[in-house]
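Run log, item B.
One chain of 423 residues. Sequence copied directly from the ordering sheet:
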Amino acid sequence: MSPEQNPSRSFGRRSLLRASGTVAAAGFLAACGGNTGRGGGSTGGKAISQWYHQYGEAGTQQAALRYAKAYGKADVSVQWIPGDYASKLSSGLVSSSGPDVFEFHPDVQMAKSGQIVPLDDIIADVKSDFTESDLAANSVDGKVYGIRMIDDPQFLYYRKSLLEKAGVQPPTTFDELIEASRKLDKGGVKGLYLGLKAGSDILASPLVWATGSELLTADHKVAFDNPATVEGLKKMRELYTSKTLLLGAPTDWFDPSAFIQGLTAMQWCGLWAMPGIQKALGDDFGIIPLPGIGSAGRPVVYNGGWSTYVSAKAKDVDAAKAFVKWLWIEQTKLQEDWCTSYGFHIPPRKSLAAKATKLQSGTAAEAVKLFGTNGHYDDPYWTQAMATISQDMVNNAVVSGKNPESEVAKARTRVEAELKKIA
């Protein structure tokens, strides 16, 4: 589903986003949009508070309420949180009025600080049905802390007719992307849209991956401090100074409106937007990964997505875990509904993905294939604080034009300081 409508991070929905780090104690920010799925009175007094960020796709809130109402062992209230979900969740998790069950993104600090509980017992029987990457993204010190709800790959969408008219082939390298953006920038249509921050937020991690580098090593050390990352920043700066990027669009990157309305020939967006794009443009669009940068470069499809967690401060942890098991382990029909009825998302369960008919033909099937070949997942050790640091690095080097070598070195120092906090 599309990101929260006012992402605080590349929390962008879907990168939207991501974990907020060890949540600092702060006054609880009241959750907006609260509602309940049940009338109460038939569950022995058990009550569960479940939080979602505000999805953009029509029907999602109604679906969440319907699922809650169908649960017979507790009264489940659904809080639909608009705006800065990450900050509200951070406050909620240290409050007595916070959620029992909530969706978010992998973050080692939430596990190490004891804010969430392991879910190995409820996932044990179906663990092999989840992809190894989704399990790894939610695992810390060998324990599984989150149940993946949806996988949300992101791509570069392009208008076939506009590329054909300009004599441009879908780019396969970053240099080709820059050249394509130049050739497509004409007649009131910009070449490329990477969001309101020119990609400095949502592409901070994909940019590093596209150079062939990693953010962290397997043993949680800095891996991005190298000439390849510097070259990636230089290429992004070249794209930015080409003046072919759409800036100041009415909506951010996770909303396809700019692309659908013809304001741009290409746009970075998620799989969730594909049904709306198909409805508006028919077959006049295609998708590609973020092209590789440099001799060691590789194409990148970033996987956002959301997982569900149980708060260690839940009123009844066992009851909360039982609800999570019911909804995200046992109710496969509801899981398929959540993934394919309100925008397109890839079900994390291999058995469900295999029979998701809406994803088995056309551009949707191509998206699944590209994701399988080029997908990159969140690392739970890459915290929200580190994500902010990398976004600062990209913004400073690309938008502000500061020295890329210095920005990479500065980011390394700051990330190493964050790593020490979770050692």
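Observations after the first pass:
- The CA atoms of residues 10 and 202 lie 5 Å apart.
- The chain has 17 helices and 15 strands.
Flagged for discussion on Thursday.
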